[in-house]
């Protein structure tokens, strides 16, 4: 992985986090959505935060550990996005765009893990 790819993925995960926040701000707040929004904000923004931490890691083992956490958060985010569709199906189109990007991010993180020898 080159420096440019590192920067691009950091920027891409930041933009994804911003889109998660925008979605959550637009959702109606009720007894069902409030817990889902909280979970989605935590996992959706943790992807990029953990990836940035991985890039500042002290070694390969720490790097891999943090990338694996980022991937775990990406998997969890898929779950919460699907539940948002169930709770508020009028947001399905917007959520599907985020799901597509999230799956791509998860796949990129999986490739990084695979290519790093774990």
TrEMBL record:
Gene3D superfamilies: 23S rRNA-intervening sequence. It holds the Pfam family 23S_rRNA_IVP. This is Four helix bundle protein. The lineage of its organism: Bacteria, Candidatus Roizmaniibacteriota.
């Amino acid at each position: 992985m080159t420096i440019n790819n590192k920067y691009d993925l950091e920027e891409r995960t930041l933009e994804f986090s911003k889109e998660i926040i925008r979605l959550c701000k637009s959702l109606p707040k009720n007894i069902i959505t409030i817990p889902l929004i909280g979970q989605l904000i935590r996992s959706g923004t943790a992807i990029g935060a953990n990836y940035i931490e991985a890039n500042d890691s002290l070694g390969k083992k720490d790097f891999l550990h943090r990338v694996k956490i980022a991937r775990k958060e990406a998997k969890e985010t898929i779950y919460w996005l699907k539940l948002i569709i169930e709770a508020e199906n009028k947001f399905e189109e917007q959520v599907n765009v985020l799901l597509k990007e999230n799956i791509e991010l998860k796949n990129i993180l999986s490739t990084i893990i695979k290519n790093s020898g774990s």
